[in-house]
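JOB MANIFEST
job_type = single_chain_structure
chain_count = 1
residues = 1246
[input]
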Amino acid sequence: MEQASQTKGPDGPLTDQLIKFGKFFSRWDETDDGRAVFREGGRKGDAFYRDRWSHDKEVRSTHGVNCTGSCSWKVFVKDGIITWEAQQVDYPSTGPDMPDYEPRGCPRGAAFSWYEYSPTRIRHPYVRSALLEPYREAKARLGDPVEAWRAVTSDPEISRAYKRARGKGGLVRTTWEEAMEIVAAANVATIADWGPDRIAGFSVLPAMSMVSFGAGARYLQLIGGVNLSFYDWYADLPVASPQVFGDQTDVPEAGDWFNSQYLIVWGSNLPLTRTPDAHFMTEARYHGQKVVSVAPDYSDNTKFADEWLRVNPGTDGALAMAMGHVILKEFHVEHPTERFQDYMLHYTDSPFLLELDETPEGLVPGKFLSVADVPEAVDEETRNRPNPEFRFLVMDKSGAVRDPRGTLADRYTDEGKGKWNLTMDGVDARLSLYEEGCESAEVKLPRFDLVADEAPTAAVGAGVVTRGVPVRRVGGKLVTTVYDLMLAQYAVARPGLPGTWPTSYTDASTPGTPAWQEELTGVAAEAAIRIGREFAQNAIDSEGRSQIIFGAGVNHFYHADQIYRTMLALTTFCGTQGINGGGWAHYVGQEKVRPITGWTQYSFALDWQRPARQMIATGFWYLTTDQWRYDGLEAQRLASPLGGQAFGDQTVADTLVEASQRGWMPTFPSFDRSSLELGRAAEEAGVSVGEYISGQLTEGSLKFACEDPDNPVNYPRILFNWRTNLLGSSAKGAEFFMRHMLGADDDVQARELEAEDRPKSMVWRDAPAEGKLDLMVTADFRNTTTTLHSDVILPAATWYEKYDLSSTDMHPYVHTFNAAINPPWDARTDFELFQDLSAYVSKMAEVHLPEPMQDVIASPLTHDSPDELLTPHGRVAPREEIGWVPGVNMPKLIPVVRDYRTISDRYNTVGPLIEKAGMATKGVAFNAQKEIDEFIAMEGTLETFMGPRPRMDTDKRACEFILRFSGTTNGSMATRGFKTLQERVGTGNMAEMAEGDEEKHVTFKDVQAAPVSVVTSPEWSGSEHGGRRYTAFSQNIEYHKPWHTLTGRMHYYLDHDWMQAMGESLPTFRPPLDLHHLLGEAAPGTMGRDGRGQAEVAVRYLTPHNKWAIHSQYFDNLYMLTLGRGGQTVWMSPQDAEKIGVRDNDWIEAHNRNGVVSARAVVSHRIPEGTVYMHHAQERVANTPLNESTGRRGGSHNSLTRIFLKPSHLIGGYGQFTYAYNYVGPTGNQRDEVTMIRRRSQDVEF
């Protein structure tokens, strides 16, 4: 103590010396003990810090990137310069019992302001010099922009020259006016010479910036152009959702994860892809939630899981089937759970009767039994009800067959009003026909898990299992229930039933058991048993709060619909759909435009004309990029061994043509003549467009454009890209895009098909098309692979320079973009861009399109309409038997009058169709005269060619329109919509879900102030009423409202001819495509040597999302590049790396028939042997060398992918199998690919 008291200073002699040393450099006064320091000069030392974080204003905005975050940010501005951003913290509270939605954001979003003034920023319009110079010369010579464009594009030498220059630089700065003039001239010339459906536009997920998407879409629809879909093209669309629910994708908000007591995260990586919301999953452990991660790699999500099931890529369906086997065996058959069985009886198609058909192979499941099939077996009242072909039957406990109501037969008729519901009034239906001593029969069921048969005509890996089901005879027909068939499919035996059944869970000899799945998935049988059992038991204990989060790890496979159906079955076996904390939760893409009705009207110009031209992007790109010329995949080789020869000698390309001709899928360009020419010819002939075109098709003098995609008359001529990076992000088969769509350099390695392998319904031209597009226009704020291959680049405003709206499926709020600064340099908002273009086109049309013209839209058979009734029993009749009947067995043919002089007037005002025809969303009609009057009072009118119309000439007014004309943001509309719906359903006061919000009218100013909660509306299937967390299908469960399906229930069984032919009527396991046996490509695990003798290995090639990017956005951001390796990488296992002599960070080259990629290797134990990850959309503008093997710039992740069409994704005209934009269609799946990888020279060139 004495020694301590003698020590001067804070800590002893050494510290004293350090303080004195510091004082030498910076003078100060101090107390005797050295514990206090005094300086002069105030806070000058803080001046730099204070200056760095000072600002003149703070503006709320958000990020228009496809991450689903929809996060509200503060943007700080100083001296007119955006300096930084920070997270907003004023979201409405979720209440005292769960976490809030704030703060929301991620490191990527916090780096966005870098783009504002970055080297990649596009500041001015640019045009490729090889195009601009001849255009200027032609204009000087001809004196007219439209004639100049015709001169340039009709000159083969000039046209070839500027197309070959794509991707090679040569972009020169021009004025906004000249750029607009070129684009407008190209549009007008193309409309006049080729037809408006040769102009297409691609933009992605509208929820992330609704007006920006809508502005371009509105322009395209006003001129008669084509909007390409995005959700199916991204493979974000789960096709199982329309198949099972008749709904596109309706899912719980993120906060509902917290309500779950048992959460399986399956193929999703929440902390990476759902960063702002992952805390709901991690915090739920505090109330006892168990989290199970199902993934092939040790993902970020797996770190937070209680249990990890490491599944082999693409085999998830086998694991789900085995879990289903356990649940059905233990909780349905051995110890029946009343809640589960009651749920399946009322809310699924389980009790519905199916015919069993006799075939050469034996009995197979057939069609749903309807009144039309057995009219003598039902009472007279039932027999006389409308739509007997769609009045599907159940058997009640008396043995009589009954109409349970609520099926598609009741949805559109006056007789069905008040009876379209799930109550089954007066019907005591049987779930199963099984009872002791009952009649039974053996049925044949397909399987696809066998070792592949190398015979070229056999369905690959397919076989047959025999199982028994209880049966009855009705009207001479042998029938069973869907439930009984499901038990057979899942290998759940019951005493007395014949067939081949497993002896126990450890029996791997037959499909369905835990031991069987272990051989396929690598997941221990004991784990599958335990997780299945826990999932079901928790659903009992928590009354349905068992939930599965679905992700791209399963949704991006070719057979993802089948994987999803096996997983969805788990949720319905246990009665969890429509229950808070339960059900499915699909998160792949940002597809929830909360104010959907107003947005739809605005975006597709439905206030002026109907219908819109909307196209399945996957089909469009497949034909435009000529991938069909390399794709000899025979549909029959994918089919069931029990399906006969339903597809005959068709390739998958032939099935696309057939689906287009039948009106199942949209097809644009539609015919091998201009749609304007067809409209004119019909007028001259004095007949309807339907009569004229069907007659021409019958004669053979008119063909669908998809029959001959390489005929120049069928080329798409102009492509708009905005809010997207097509070539750097989503272009499956990127090298084919380069070769055939653009005519640029490419690294395609595939050979074109030999004559015997070519599609049978398509014209083969020996000279392939290269450079189909005359013009590619891209609007963006940063340089990307897409801008660098475009002919005209337009500088777009960033997310901090515009006014717009954002929403998401992750939370129930709408919020805004706001301009922190005006767009700098020559940048324009998307709204202004298309507004200017509308004015230019209108002006040029006065000379070149001076009169109104009749256009003809070939519209597909559409969902949520009586078109669903056009294919009874899903039977596909041969064309020669049915002829060409518009709107029945071919597209609807709808005339629309176009006056191109008025495009600008229409763009800037609200058209009259809302008053005349009303609006509809998901079959619910809205009379919006009240909203029209309110909107005029708010915004005034503009004088147009038809007199004054409601004014919508700014982006803010467009936002107000969307909010005013949507039930989710207008309580009055929501209430009226529910009243309309409850008249049809007839089960109670559905309008109570909007109670208290009748007078709530969300305005743009409201949302500028803070995020605003939406109103519960019939536009969606769940409820947020009273602060409830949104979960899908709660309206269906709580108000007995049918799903939009054939039976009105969630479907296990699908009986369309093509579903039966594919062997996919029931949920079943289908492995990843066997490209070795299907197409002769390398099998995973194959070792070989390239032409230089370098060892290479074949591996499964997966493209998951990147940790430091959102698609291609942020990848090129300097902050994010420093967190990764500064360029493209491929993650691989140590085992595969050792096989080919690769060490971490070596340069490697990956190649297959689609293209070639050079990247650095990341060697990690995280990755399983036999699989590599190349993270999606690593933009190749950053640190990508030349390929060693070809000498061309290394490709992107999509250089190794291609488009794979699945025939069952093309079905239409039947119940839930009818088309709506982004609702259904072929997906751009890409996870079945295999690639060869080798170590390349480490001396790289750039």
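[summary]
The chain has a mean pLDDT of 95.
The two ends are 71 Å apart (CA to CA).
exit_status = 0
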